[in-house]
Amino acid sequence: MPREITAYSNPLIKRVRNLREKRHRREEGLFLAEGLRILTEARESGRLPEYLFFARDSADHKLVRTLIADVEAAGGEAIETVPDILSKLSGKDNPQAVVGVFAEFATSLDALDRNAADIWLVAERLRDPGNLGTILRTGDAVGAGGLILIGECVDPFSLEAVRASMGALFTVPVVQAEWGAFLRWLRAGPGQLVGLSLDTDSDYRSATYVSPTFLLTGNEAQGMPADYAAACDLLVKIPMLGKADSLNAAVATAVMAYEVLAQRRADPSRG
Amino acid sequence: MPREITAYSNPLIKRVRNLREKRHRREEGLFLAEGLRILTEARESGRLPEYLFFARDSADHKLVRTLIADVEAAGGEAIETVPDILSKLSGKDNPQAVVGVFAEFATSLDALDRNAADIWLVAERLRDPGNLGTILRTGDAVGAGGLILIGECVDPFSLEAVRASMGALFTVPVVQAEWGAFLRWLRAGPGQLVGLSLDTDSDYRSATYVSPTFLLTGNEAQGMPADYAAACDLLVKIPMLGKADSLNAAVATAVMAYEVLAQRRADPSRG
């Protein structure tokens, strides 16, 4: 039977609200995800929140009822509350019907099976949470094995990243690693490291990708360091006809990933 | 000789700060753009701000000096200020060195030369300013003739859209039109209308695009209305292997646009 919280001063509300800050997420090992679509994606991927906040008037919704039942069966707590509090938890004027508090999870390089997928995404010093979430969403769409975050990246458990991922945070494994450790792991088995670069004549459509392909995208403003580029098996560029000579990092990653996917679909034997 | 403003209570500061709200932008016919990169892009595209705010300690930067000189030569005003005020104008903790206040500009369908480009982007009820800016940036990169916004879209002059466009707002013409007017204009000349859809078996890589190609992307959450899809010459889908069955709207637009561009580069005769 769900308990009810309607007072903003409730200590749990305060604690959950704090999870919008990285420091509190690290301390608690918890993060926030909101919205029926994302929480249903999570549930279907085997992840249930420890706390599930839901608006009183959404409790009749079938998916909300399923979530409540599953959360309670798994030992979590479902908490009925009011739109105003949901709004305060997520920092949005139009709150979602549900907000979940999940235990953070992490994958290590050693836990990845590189042969389980043709495409892997690697991002270096990614700074924008929207880009991170969007790249996860693309990763889900192209069937990527995972997203490997190199160096100081934005927190994949930030509310903005979770939001932009539309649930892909729960379906695409994320690993955080240092460059050296990643490179050692990569070179211990098969894998083509393909770097996106402006300093090459190799067009991304003319290159041949070999599975498993690891697509490396550099920092939004600076691209990747020279020694990272030098470590790649292949550098390719996406043509840009305009004046700005730059694409959004998540867009460039997607254009590349879809080219690799198209090659795999046309010639699965290289997979 | 630039005047100096260091008091937050200055009425001009208040007025400029208000431009972060759409209502004030419409009233004043002005909008904000920030950062040396974006303002330089604007200058090179022939657009100078009416007011240019710059941080005192950036006045020695060559690009800032060029901007100040050009703004003053064009009858605009360059205003020296402090980082705290720049921060308040843009709402960011780490302010850019320059903030510009530009006159809004608009293009009409009738002013577009459809034969001037192979690719045109059309977005319908686009709601996210980051997506709008990112689509403009992609439009710049693929050499799109312009972005046509159909129906109730987010304001292209919002600070977030301008930011995400990285200056492409100044290089890619933007038109706002109603669906009926757009369709009448489109059908009055050559043009293939290609809609991105989940309800088709046509793979985007197998389709043949004819110039000028108009790529129509629907609303982020709902896609496009059935009658819009019915009006398309061609519906194509991007394969999605994952669980979420969705791509970010700006990503989907870019994947499509780069396929059209690749076909044009491989076979310019259809252009």
From TrEMBL, chains A, B:
What keywords would UniProt list here? Methyltransferase, Transferase
A molecular function (GO) held by this record is: methyltransferase activity
Q: Where is the RNA 2-O ribose methyltransferase substrate binding domain?
A: 32-108
Name the family the entry cites: Belongs to the class IV-like SAM-binding methyltransferase superfamily. RNA methyltransferase TrmH family.
Taxonomic superkingdom: Bacteria
Q: Does the keyword Methyltransferase apply?
A: yes
Xref: SUPFAM superfamilies = alpha/beta knot (SSF75217), L30e-like (SSF55315)
Source species: Sphingomonas oligophenolica
Query: Would I find Ligase among this entry's keywords?
Result: no
| Family annotation (Pfam families) | MRM3-like_sub_bind, SpoU_methylase
This chain's protein is named RNA methyltransferase
